[in-house]
């Protein structure tokens, strides 16, 4: 069997499951958000995927581990989206403002919508780039 070269090391999901808490995980995400540290989130996201791949290969996965993996990766995705929103704010992020702008200033609304979609595209590109 050929060895796979990986960008970042594995994150041990079973260790997180047995020894970590939700508070510790949220503190980690808050720290990354406050620092706007996309690289740390990228390494962790990739490492979680590698860790889950190794768990599946060893047939150690179960429903609880799978749910934890989904929750961890999703929380990273949400944090990255928040960082992108913070770096590239848009008036349309507020639904009330967006609705008013759509009615009152449709041309400006279209331009802001285009910018928002570009930002969302940047997030999607990040996901594709960092995925295992």
Explain what this protein looks like in three dimensions.
It is a single chain. It is built from six helices and no strands. By secondary structure, the protein is an all-alpha fold. It has two domains: about 10-85; about 90-130. Helix 4 (about 65-85) crosses helix 6. The chain is elongated and about 60 Å long.
How would you describe this structure in keywords?
about 130 residues; single chain
Overall pLDDT metric: 91
Give the ordered list of helices and strands.
HHHHHH
- Uncertain stretches: none
How many structural domains?
A: 2
The end-to-end span amounts to: 19 Å
- The percent range for helix content is over 70%
Total number of strands: 0
- Classify the beta-strand content into a percent band: under 5%
Question: What is the makeup of the main sheet?
Answer: none
Determine the number of helices (DSSP H or I, runs of at least 4 residues).
6
**What general form does the structure show?**
elongated
As a whole number of angstroms, the C-alpha radius of gyration is: 18 Å
Provide the structure class. mainly alpha
Oligomer: single chain
